[in-house]
Amino acid sequence: MTVALIEGRGLVRRFSRGLDAAEKLARVLGANISEETVHAVEGVDIAIRQGEVLGLVGESGCGKSTLGRLLAGLLPLTEGTLLWQGKDVASLSRSEALEMRLAVQVIFQDPMSSLNPRKRVVDLVGEAPRVHGLVRAGEVDDYVAELLEKVGLDPSYRKRYPHQFSGGQRQRIGIARALAVKPRMIVCDESVSALDVSIQAQVINLFMDLREELGLTYLFISHDLSVVKHISDRVAIMYLGRVVETAPADAFFAAPNHPYTAALLRELPSVKERRRAFTPIRGEIPSPLNPPSGCAFHPRCPRIFTPCAQARPALEPIADGHLSACHLNAAASAPVTAGGSA
Ligand SMILES: Nc1ncnc2c1ncn2[C@@H]1O[C@H](COP(=O)(O)OP(=O)(O)OP(=O)(O)O)[C@@H](O)[C@H]1O
């Protein structure tokens, strides 16, 4: 079996939600209020092979970005183990850890928005490779020009400032910036969500061309299944901090298993079904401050039955490479007893 490029075992990330001013005052006045824990990622196992595109999908707040940041080493783990090419990241030497940090780059929704608006593109893109010795100071200008060309921008744009670009162009500069440190994997965190549909398609095509050319691996995070549908080799669905289903993309779209996945897919508009009524998933997303007992999806699940509120279903294989965390699978495979079906 080939070793995954990156693997997380039992990943957990919790945040403590501090008290707001009113709550602090209430506590001073004697109210029994303590800081609460946000269960952002709770026991996720995930492995991504070299060259693979894994689409990670789920509703807002389910923990996708937190998981992406954990994998990129941008956030420390609360619990669990992260392996880079089979080696525990906690045991990497300083230079290996830096190598990994550069090898896994994250591209956010608008990567340029957090950058110094007074710096020109040549500095924004060229700084990291120069600092890390990937390119000599005298070669930065040519290096950035080449990168801009690679991402479909005119090399002369390197003299410009961030505010002089459109959303799609800014995203391309963000991609050039990530590529500048020669990554092996890119975490795309809602990287195309803010773009118009036609620009989205162009940027997705660029990601896929770069995958071919550079052998890149992607974790493609999106709240929108239609975005990941055409580019993912495999899809993982998150719900309230956990992966509830993962499968090769073909199997996933042909035969989704988890009721949450089925509900997400029903929301997917398709050309044929444009006239069909929109069916949002019923109910509110529960708070990660206080996740429901048992299966976290049970309060919204149309197929709820006895065990769902009591026991958390494990993520179990249901077909080759296809795993799902739903009690219905165990019920369906339970032996039929003399008294009727189990
Ligand atoms: N630094 C933090 N401090 C406290 N809570 C946090 C922090 N970062 C994330 N969270 C909380 O963790 C949960 C998961 O957030 P996360 O951003 O990972 O979800 P997401 O699926 O990426 O959502 P979105 O698509 O809206 O970004 C949310 O409840 C969020 O408010």
From TrEMBL:
Main subcellular location: membrane
Compartments in which it is found: Cell inner membrane
Molecular functions per Gene Ontology: ATP binding; ATP hydrolysis activity
Record has Ligase as a keyword: no
GO CC term, one of those recorded: plasma membrane
Membrane topology of the entry: Peripheral membrane protein
Entry-linked Gene3D superfamilies: P-loop containing nucleotide triphosphate hydrolases
Entry keyword set: ATP-binding, Nucleotide-binding, Transport
SMART domains per the UniProt record, alphabetical: AAA (SM00382)
GO BP terms in the entry: peptide transport; transmembrane transport
CDD domains: ABC_NikE_OppD_transporters
All residue ranges annotated as the ABC transporter domain in the record: 26-265
Family statement: Belongs to the ABC transporter superfamily.
NCBIfam families in UniProt: oligo_HPY
UniProt name for this protein: Peptide ABC transporter ATP-binding protein
